[in-house]
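Below is our example:
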Amino acid sequence: MPIEPFVSLPLLALPAWIWASLLMAGFVAVSVLTMALARIAVRERPTPKGSSAGKDDPAEPPGRPSR
């Protein structure tokens, strides 16, 4: 019983620079997605429940511009 190849033969015959470009584009896409998700995760951190921060502390640290 023959096993069908996962990738067709003409696709395997592509030049190495095309495969390298596809691999690099995938790496860049994963990197950009990771950076975007990290920025979203740290954009607004909630204050811990048991901390003393809140009443006397300013809303933002000094030197940080308001949005």
Observations:
- The two ends are 65 Å apart (CA to CA).
- The chain has a mean pLDDT of 77.
- The helical segments are 9-12, 16-43.
